[in-house]
Amino acid sequence: MYGGGWGYKKIAVFTKNLLNPAYAAARLGADRIAAQFGAVAVHYVPRVPDDADEQCALIRRAIAEGADAIALSAVHPARVNAAVAEINAAGLPLAGFISRTTEGRWGSFVGSDDVELGRSLAHYLFSHLQGMGDVAVIEASADSSTSVDRARGFRAAGIADPEGQGLASATRLASLAREDRLAVLHPAAHLYLFYRYLILERVMPSSMDGATALSKAFKALQLRSTRIGEASLKDGLLGANRWNRALIEAARLRKLL
Asked: Which segments of the chain have a pLDDT < 50?
């Protein structure tokens, strides 16, 4: 929000509590950016951590105290809706961060894909456990939409790959290639990488790791085919082998061709 350009000098910033150091950093960041653009950030934080009723009261107070714009991290996805409606009715610009409400008009929102965040965390953990050990998940408040979504993503990863065996296998394939210093021109180079891609696609579809493995596999297959001068042999390599055909089709679907 640009204090000088829009004439908004007083930005009301709402964070969920005084306990989480991430919110302390957010308040500090808001102070610095507001000052940079000639505005001032006024902070409204519930004395009772994550209390929806108190945050609603603070929103009404900020409107009454003449806030020019509001930056809000909602403590609850639904219980702050009425206060958000009052912000809209007052015609104040509203920007959200971290968590938002299920209703209301927001000018902008900065957050993350919390389901994917939880899923990625689970994949990272499972790959290092390599199918061994138990995992305990300690969740935050059930009112926290970010926590709920992250836990949902974590559980989804566990359902898809309950013991982390798929990711462990993918990790072992990558390690095997590194430890054996598998040459790119080795007859099995593209297959090592393609099998890794297939495993990753099963447990974490459309991931960057999978895309990288597929790209490397396809390049290795291309490089090998260029070393074959006779057309019939090259056609046999690329078309007759089931796994090579599958690799080429996957590359086509991923628009690598």
From this structure: 1-6, 179-180
